[in-house]
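Suppose a colleague, Dr. K., hands you the sequence of a protein chain of 140 amino acids and asks what its three-dimensional shape might be. Before reaching for any lab equipment, you can write down a predicted structure in token form. Begin with the sequence itself:
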Amino acid sequence: MDIAQATEWAAERSLGVLITIRADGRPQSSDIVYDLDGGAFVISVIEGRAKTANLRRDPRAVLHVSDAGSWSYVSFDGAVELSPAASRPDDATCDALVRYYERVTGKPHPDWEEYRRAMVDERRLVVRFTPRAATGMLRA
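The predicted structure, expressed as tokens, is then:
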């Protein structure tokens, strides 16, 4: 499947399943919300969670996006880069999470100070998933 066509289709959606690789080689899947920034998918995760640990150990992943209404889907095969966990409300990770929030929701948060504190308290970080290949079926 043409990766540009697949990415264009996925840009019209925001829900997906991120599939990572456990230490024993088995897949682990997590429902996620993503934003497409250029050619990379941006995902917010929490330090200490299984998917984050899996991605630190092995950056390979699959992002599966589907549309039940049209029986269409794309599975992107790629790799990730992880930001540092948010450690201060004014750090670069919090700034990236603000951009992520606004792009995913389409509006500003009602209290940015509270949001930034929550990102630090939750030890959130940003995953940038860069697809290298795509498979699937797109129907009109």
